[in-house]
Structure formats: C-alpha cells, structure tokens
Specification:
Blueprint: E1 3-14, E2 17-28, E3 32-36, H1 43-50, E4 58-63, E5 66-67, H2 72-76, E6 79-82, H3 94-102, H4 110-119, H5 135-147, E7 153-157, H6 165-182, E8 185-190, H7 193-199, E9 202-207, E10 210-211, E11 215-216, H8 217-223, E12 228-235, H9 238-245, E13 254-257, E14 260-266, H10 270-283, E15 288-294, H11 299-307
Parallel strand pairs: 3-8, 3-9, 6-7, 7-8
Antiparallel strand pairs: 1-2, 1-4, 4-5, 9-10, 9-11, 12-14, 12-15, 13-14
C-alpha cells in the first residue's frame, strides 16, 4: 500500500506548553485511519498541523511524499479537508456552491461533477438552496466539494458530530467506499467509538498530545486487554467440571449450561492453567470438546484504558 500521510517526530508547543509530543504517523491509500481521543486530547491541533494551518516546532509532515513546510502547494494540491464546521453560501443551491469551487479547477468537466454528486447521494437535492439542507446533507456536500479535485488524501475532523444515526451510516458507507473503491487515504478524528469500530480499518489513540502505534480494531482491543481473558469450555459434564476446577483455580467457574463453563484466566499464566484444567477434567473422566477465548472487551474498554492513563488534557 502507498503511504499517503506521514508525520515524523512532530512536536508542537504553545506558551511553554507542549500540545503534541513526538508524533509519528503513517496512513495509506485505500484505508480509513481513525485518530481517537477524548475532547481536549489534541485531535484538532493534529488536524491543523496536517493541513498546514500550524507549523510544528520539530519534525516534519509529508503528504503524498511532499514536505508540507517546504512544498506547501504541491503537498496540499491532492488533499481534501472537511472541518467540523463547513461553510457554504446558504442562499445558493448545492450545485451553485459546487460550481464555484469547481471553477477554481478548469480541468473538472460537467460529467465528473455529476459523477461526484451521484456518488455522494445529492442528486435529489443538489438544486435546492443550501439553507434548506440538514446537517447530514451539508456533510455530503462538503464531501462532494472535497472530491472535486480528485484528492488522494481526505482529512476529516469529527465528521459525524451532530449527525443523526441515518446520516452517520450514510457518511460511514461513503467514506469506506472512497477508501476501498477509489483508493483514497481517509483520515478521520473522532470520539464516537461505535462509529470508529464500524468505519475504520486501523486506529490510533491520542491522549494528552501523545499517540499510540496504529493497530487494527481487533489488535487494539486484545493488546490493551487487561489482566484476564475469559475462556469457554464445552465439556461432557459442566456440573462435575465446576467442582474439579476448584482444585486448580481460586476463582469459581461460571456455569452456562449442562455442557458449558466459563473461566477467567490470568493472562500471565494462561498456558499453565489451561493445561492443568484439561488434565484435571480428563483425570475425573470429563470429556473436553472445545476451548476458546471470549472476545469480551470492547473498543470502549481499550479507549478508556489508554486515555485515562495518557497524561493531562489540553485546554
């Protein structure tokens, strides 16, 4: 996969306060990368640095291989950005707004503009005045505007903020389609964890101006995963096994049904305890059919674990 966005050892300070600490980040074309963080964690500051609104004190930003500080125009020419508050001319129609932006790029044909409007689901309302648009429709219009110049990178700051569930679902589908079907690098900041789970291919956590290494959703949930894992045993006699397990584990097993038990196993001694349980059951004449871990942690657990230990909040 082609690297589209790079931040290399980026540090930003303001009035003796460090806002971003040694940020390293890579985002690829064809993926949705989420930057998750609580309010005040530094997400908007990060976007400002990525889009050239603020210059870092240390480190560098590269967009499509171009250094943002020294080659600003060429770095940003294939980058689209959607901020939390998108401004349009409310007394003009959606089409008139888009044509104004398209006029800045004379190589955009009417056919291409129509394709973008169709892709973003605006065909029915594109000739209505923007003041009549819902927030979800304005968000679609913002995406259409950002796509006019065929960006390789699309950067969005809190794109789902204030949207109703239906609009959020449409936004999610559009962004994933852009990444996976049109090979765009989509980078979003958000604190909506449920949406991040559904939308993002990989995520990074930002807390107190510090960022974690990128992980897939499954990796994040499991690698931050506390001290214990729940294992489910399918066995011939759960009642008998519950008694036998007391000779191995201090914590009691949870009886699910006549053939199913669940155990909370410490992560530091998993192999030893699982093998001892199996040996105990077999020695008692209990057949063991299957053993598998239960995915009982959520992104919310991982998010709270990281952000609550990630340093001070930003103003």
């Amino acid at each position: 996969m082609d690297i589209a966005v790079q931040m290399q050892h980026v540090t930003l300070k303001s009035k003796q306060k460090t806002l971003l600490y040694d940020i390293n980040l890579e985002a690829y074309r064809g993926e949705v990368l989420g930057i998750l963080g609580a309010n005040g964690s530094g997400k908007t500051v990060l976007i400002q640095v990525l889009t050239g609104q603020r210059r870092p004190d240390e480190g560098q930003v590269l967009l499509n291989g171009k250094h943002l500080n020294s080659h600003r125009a060429s770095a940003l020419i294939h980058t689209g950005c959607i901020l939390e508050e998108n401004r349009f001319f409310p007394y003009l129609t959606g089409m008139q707004n888009l044509r104004m932006f398209a006029g800045m790029r004379p190589d955009i044909s009417s056919e291409e503009l129509t394709d973008i409007i169709r892709f973003t689901g605006l065909m029915r309302c594109i000739h209505h005045k923007v003041r009549t648009y819902s927030k979800g429709m304005r968000q679609r219009l913002a995406i259409a505007q950002a796509l006019i110049h065929h960006p390789a990178i699309l950067i969005l700051d809190e794109p789902a903020a204030g949207l109703d569930p239906g609009a959020i679902r449409n936004l999610r589908e559009h962004l994933r389609m852009l990444a996976h079907d049109r090979n765009v690098c989509v980078l979003i900041t958000t604190n909506l964890l449920s949406e991040a789970e559904l939308m993002c291919d990989r995520v990074m956590m930002l807390s107190g101006g510090r960022i974690t290494a990128p992980r897939s959703m499954q990796e994040l949930v499991h690698t931050t995963g506390g001290t214990h894992t729940i294992y489910r045993f399918r066995i011939s006699d759960a009642h008998e096994a519950q008694t036998a397990a007391r000779l191995v584990l201090d914590t009691p097993a949870v009886l699910c049904d006549a053939h199913t038990l669940e155990f909370s196993i410490p992560n530091h001694d998993t192999d030893n305890l699982l093998s001892r349980l199996v040996y105990q059951f077999v020695s008692w004449g209990i057949d063991v059919y299957t053993i598998y871990p239960i995915d009982n942690r959520t992104l919310e657990d991982a998010f709270l674990e990281i952000t609550q230990s990630g340093g001070t909040q930003l103003d």
